[in-house]
Amino acid sequence: MRIVWGYKTEYPEPDMILIDGCQYANWSEKIFREMNAGGVSAVHVTICYHEDFRETVENMADWNRMFERFPDLIVPGRTAEDVRRAHADGRTAIVFGFQNCSPIEDDIGLVEICHQLGARFMQLTYNNQSLLATGCYEENDTGVTRMGRQVIANMNRVGLVVDMSHSGERSTPEAIEMSERPIAITHAHPAFWHPAQRNKSDDVLKALGESGGMLGFSLYPHHLKDQPDSVVEWMRVGRWTKDIDYGEGSASDAGFPPMPSWFGGNLDFGNIADGLKAHGFDDADVEKVMGGNWLRFFEESFGPSN
Amino acid sequence: MRIVWGYKTEYPEPDMILIDGCQYANWSEKIFREMNAGGVSAVHVTICYHEDFRETVENMADWNRMFERFPDLIVPGRTAEDVRRAHADGRTAIVFGFQNCSPIEDDIGLVEICHQLGARFMQLTYNNQSLLATGCYEENDTGVTRMGRQVIANMNRVGLVVDMSHSGERSTPEAIEMSERPIAITHAHPAFWHPAQRNKSDDVLKALGESGGMLGFSLYPHHLKDQPDSVVEWMRVGRWTKDIDYGEGSASDAGFPPMPSWFGGNLDFGNIADGLKAHGFDDADVEKVMGGNWLRFFEESFGPSN
Hints:
Two copies of one chain form a homodimer.
Chain A: E1 2-4, E2 7-9, E3 18-23, H1 29-37, E4 40-48, H2 53-69, E5 74-76, H3 80-89, E6 92-98, H4 109-116, E7 119-123, H5 146-158, E8 161-163, H6 171-178, E9 184-185, H7 202-210, E10 214-215, H8 229-237, H9 269-278, H10 283-301
Parallel strand pairs in A: 3-4, 4-6, 5-6, 6-7, 7-8, 9-10
Antiparallel strand pairs in A: 1-2
């Protein structure tokens, strides 16, 4: 039993590095304290859905203000070493990621600038066609574009990870193939488990695995419990349509289901570790799934290429 | 005698760290090779005169491209350690500075963002009134503004040096007084030596010295020899007037005088060291003036405050 910031928690083991591979929340001191108490050593946080460069910088400045206000709870996560230090101190490292390529606009120079400002993951597309590739809800996937190829090369050079969570069935394997460094699908599921355009086919997952890439599962939409509807609407429709877009939902099924009994938030990652053990994973593998694999991936991915 | 990149040079001593406290040039491989050959370990380069944030980021992206193209000649200069490494390798560390506060616009969050992107010096004013303080050519100097006080505190916090080279006679000592860390006047002269609005009074220099600040002398306008007139015009008038402004010059005296015999460019810093010796400075003091003082100042100024 650990007691951290007044929270009691039995999980995870204090020596286990726990990494959340993608989270969006209504960030606050309360949530930071929960992350510390839940033993979350690092979290990849979404800081952009549709924002352009200047708006994304403003989001980064907001995070700088939070780092300044809550230095005992959170630290910038730029390297695997930052994560290890945060873990040793009982704090949480915040790793910036973009769900879209909107922050780099049409300017290849902004790839390195965004990395300098702390970005470590960037999706090439978010559901729709982008300047770089095709999203999973487009009717036609024309693959990685001319600019997309240039951007991938520059992301590889500086250490900004290509994330294809919301990309199409053709663009995704093309990005895996073009990228000289392993890519990530930070939040999606195998389509064989639950068929959906957002989920990934066996072929894509095989190519991802063979390239040394990472797949992160998702608890969406549950982690959005605390969000006002305006945030969900921004995620879904940004500025690209005046209509409401429900993704794979519908007007009659637009709401969010209740949270499952075994995961209410940052304090409950231990239940996932328990579930893995109950399904036959040994301790070493559980440690890898809960954070060790991401830590290794951060180590190999966040710095400049050789 | 050293021969570097085909240039012969006797100065400075190979073990002397030489730092140019402010330079603007028409940057090119030729100039980088000259800097290496001249033994210039670091140079504070002006990357903004009137540019707003987005334009300044574009200038930084242009520099990133030069770092990528010429890694054997130049490296980013973010810390004193970067300068020492550049010196050991025979390369030149490039330290970014703004001659104006235009890159932070009206947004205090951009102070830290600019520091994250490598900025290490920022003038509060460039000749004119700014949002932060009053420039040296204004008729009335109302001192450091409300926003100016906030910006100085944030510059102190992150390690962005306050530069008052072009600021007014009241604003300058106020900034020295308000700043919790020593400031710099990177390019100006004592007014007792040459009276000019751009030069600094005995009172200002005394306050600067007592606070541990730095004064850098200037060879302007000679170092602009290679510049097209459009650059000089941008420096002088930016977008703030439709008329030509000659600073302390005039229409009949708008041109640039010839370079002095003892300083033609980056290969000639040794002549300054010689001149100092001829005027009675001992070797230890010459080393400090040529770079040691700036190196110590970088060491104490470029990181976060304690």
